[in-house]
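Dear colleague,

Following up on yesterday's call, I've attached the two folding results inline so they're easy to grep. Please treat them as preliminary; we haven't cross-checked anything against experimental data yet. The first protein's sequence and structure tokens come first.
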Amino acid sequence: MAEEGGRPSELDLHLLECSICLEILRQPKSLPCHHSFCQECLGTYITKELSDKRVPDTLFPCPICRRMTSPANQKEAKEKWAEQFPTNFVIQDLIQLKERSTDFPYCKPCQTKGNLTTPAKFWCKTMNINFCKNCKEQHHDILHSECDILDISEFDTCINQSKQEESVPKCHQHEKKLLWYCEKHNCLGCHVCMIKFHKQCEFTITTKEYLEKLKSGAQLEDSKKILKKGADVLKSLMKDFDEQIQTLVQNQEFALKSITDLRKRIDEELDECQKAVTEELVTKYKGEKEKIEVSLRQCDRLMKGMLHTLKSSIKASADNNTMEAIMMYQRGQAEVESCQDMIKAMREPYTSVTIQHQVLKLGTQDDAMLGKIVIKKQRRRFPVDPGFLTMPLPERQVKEVRKFRIKIPEDQYDCIIFGVVYLPDGNVVLTDYNNNKLKLFTDEGQFLDQLTIPGNPCDICLVDNNTVAVTGHRVGVRIVKVEDSKLSLSSVINTGKTLYGITHKDGRFVVSDDRGGVYSMTQGGAFNMLHKYNTICWNLARDTVTDDILVSVYNKYERRVTVSRLSADKRHTDVMKADGVVRGARGIDVDREGNIYVCGEDSHNVVQMSGDGTRVRELLTSAHGIQNPLAIDVHGDKFVVFDKNEACHIRIFQLY
């Protein structure tokens, strides 16, 4: 209701606000549920609401009561739906009156004449000017008879009547006032709707009659109570939300403090970790440096001694000092022997050492947040001429230590051994080509275990002290663990190629195929060609002195290579040709001094030669019962040999 003098009451002011933007309504549009909104706000709301796929694109809910509503023309663009709803002229008039009635309304013409406090009785909406009764009749009505005049002296009565007349919404289909109510369908309608859609309905009454019915049945009072109760519930809920917000604020403050404290503790722990990792780095650095310096001092002392002996020998010879010359010669021999022994001891473990800081994935270990210090050792090419270490072939004799049977009751065929390895623990592993097996024996001849290897296993090599790798026909490479006198398959590298020879070098395999190709192969089965020979290369071995690969090439004809050397840079050198002592080379191995041992299947012998092939001697011949040797492996002063002529046995020899 309006207050005295035409001012809108608090309720009126509340009706003038848009519940979407919470500002004074602009171009107020009314929905069928009688809630009004700014045209722009309503249009934005409709567009946003219909962007949700869960809502049908022909209806939208009222922002306040959530009643589903549709425009008169649903085919029009959704951005223009708000324009289709009727303008609430009552609210529009209230807004205009509010804008001009912050003070008590006075007659504008009287104020012009000097009477500043003459109360206004009328408001011309067209001219937006207040008039008293006299000024209206004498001035305004004479010239402006068509203006829309509002009597503001009885503002409350006028507004109430205007609200009753103007606030009646119109039917969105027929643009007629909604003056009828169908109790059967619980909906409002104009007289056209009633005739067209509700003609058969029994209970159609006017809206006034329906209102009186609501009043008489106390339904309005009940509705007010429910509304009040609902408002109280929402008030309680809002209070609870406020409490939740306060709790969230407190939680945030506590969490921020906890984060700050945690950061402080982490910084302290990181400082401790950095200190520990740094100390580990310094300790390992000092340890590795000290090892190198010890070797450096040994070499330096021996070098200076040998140079001094050389100088003294030259002087003694020049002075014809017999005793001095003999003494210097003997000293020199001892120093050369010491030098050779020291180089032999250094050669096998000769590596390049790198110290790295390895960063681990966060959260891997609580005690390794800053990573760990890792020492990596990679085999390094020995910077000494192999000729210095290649002594004349030892004239030691060969004797047979043992011969034992390798065919077991489960075998269907006689054994054919293409590869054999003498393990560091003294056991022997061999590949049985005919029976598709890998077998494990002690060097005393006791059978320990067997493992089925499909595809006719061929050559075998040592990967580490308890791991071997085996080649075969179209099966790639099998990695086998040898632990606790048992054989177990660890992994398979499938290549689809038939592979014969194999050896291991720097974490990779070197293999040969059935067409004479020798390749470097990764653990994942990727190949890199090293060299192509003219025939099959049955077996391979690694020279620990030079880090080269020794290849047995199965050639029978003269001037064809039968033993070849492949260096790290892929250079190949012919060590021996088939017109020498060896023809049809098969099994091959190298001892710690760099001497080569090779089986000559067609020359019926086992040969020992120097690393460059210039010095050669036959270790075993037909006089020792050797006919067609296929496999050999050297273990210190012992070596094991398989001869095809004795298919069910293997023989162990010793140099003495």
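Below is the second protein, in the same order (sequence, then structure):
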Amino acid sequence: MNPEYSSWLRRDFLKLGTAAATAALLQACGGDGDRSDAPESVRWTREGILAALEGPGTNLGASSVALLADDRIVWSEAFGYANRDAHQRATVDTRFNIGSGSKMFTALAVMILRDRGMLSLDQPVAELLPAFSMKSPGYTRITARHLISHSSGFPGSNYRNAFNFAFVPGYAQDAFQALKQSRLKHDPGEFGVYCNDGFTLVELIVPELTGQSYTDFIQHELLGPLGMALTGFALAPAAEGTFVHPVWREQTLPQEMVAPYAAGGLFSTPSDMMKLARMMMDGGVFEGRRIVSDGALQDMGVDQSAMTRIDPAAPSWRWGLGWDTVQQPGLDAAGLLAWKKGGDTQFFHCDFIVLPQARLAAMLVNDNAFTGNRLALLEGLLLRAAQERGMISAVPSAIVSTVPPAVSVTPGAAELIGIYARDNMPVQVLAEAGGTLAFRFWTAGEWTVADKGLRLRTDGWWWADGVAERCYAFKTVEGRRYLIQRSLSGNQLYWDEVPVAEWLPEALAPLPAAWQDRVGSQWRCINDDPESFEGRYEPRTGVIGELAERPGYVMWNDDQLLRVINGNEAGMTVKIPVMAGRDLVELRMEKGEDGEDRLHVGTLVFRPMPEI
């Protein structure tokens, strides 16, 4: 899973140093870590990882990497600590949670079922799962393809009891109930926006069609045949020393047990994941045994945006089936076809890249202490490995960006100002003297300047003087105006272009009295499991508000601006492709058994907090 995505934040290029001061503390474990004659690709990446794990004393992160060439792992190495308190170092067999890397197995499960004639990609989910329903009648048009290509129209993610410190059952069923109480945020197949709940629904379709639990199916059809003995689901506590302990606020925590199995529940090692990569490079066959058809793998690698009604024109996010992108731009800059999947949990992060034609693959995983740009490191590793194997003549040069000249007249600039909403931190676009624009974020109850002095340039984008690594544009699609951000990638090999917010019109009416009376009220969740992250360490709270610059909308938790449906319901307002509209919510007020108001957000239940 990808808990929070801040598309606005500048991605600083990782400065790769020698990290000599910390090399002794961050000894590599396993693999080829101690070889002095390692190729430049390995030396370069190792230095980058060490630099990203620098820290005072023993407050160091953990990371692990593997590189596959043809049928052989040519480099695997682990860094840092599996348990900092016990001074226990990570090894190449130490397991990390891989979050949304798990979606590759979910997509493969769907393709295996298709190979066996048990479903078709364009078959309605309501036929596969008869109990499925939503408040929007369009749910009947959602297909299996929509679930695994982020185009279902589901609100986003059920985060209740997702990241836990003990086995907490029932997550998929809870998400199912949340969907039954929800509306669609866009029409099925309209566009793609990252969505965990689509994959979670596959967790319920598998037993409906096969009689096997989802976890048993993945074990029997994929993990077992691939010999992935170090990969699995946290159905019970793992043996101490086999996994990396998460660290939060300088405190070493118990094992993170991720409950959304199909969306992000697997743990693994980079070396184990190279077995999956081998199968993909060999057309669905692993060590002589067919796992899935070659046609299924090729279909997973097809750009799904061509099948949606709206193409978001986001070159970094060309969804495949399961894949985040089937044309990873850092490798594409060298003419190399690459499929990429990233993943995040509360505490761990990974990127997994397969080059099916070049027969290269790599994975890098780390915990929250890692300060570098993981994707830039992984792309750099694969580019250098491709060069060493004679596939490319050189690693592409970094883009040298310059700010274009400003235009003398900026027609229509006044129409661009206003409030732009998203899944968090609304944006205000302001006109400045001299025809420039400024952007402000709403965060922690106040406006904070994000960019200023933006001028329209001859290329049609808004740039600030002297800031050559990012720019902005405004694009209207089917009557909706989007703020688009274009920024240089972490390795400066390509431009990352995504919509980051949508202009929100003035409300047609003021807040009704029922909602006006709730403005300023604070709420605490009462049904997080005691063993969840929120139940154990950081209680979930929220506040109902109203933004002065856009009265008439309900503001939830200083983040999302919602439209009033009636005196007890507020719903989603924006439809933003890719990431900035990914996890939207609806509010529903009901009376509890004690007669007190209860606020429902999906299946989360909140009660009023006492006024101070």
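For the second protein, one point worth flagging: Residues 413-503 form one domain.

Best wishes,
A.L.
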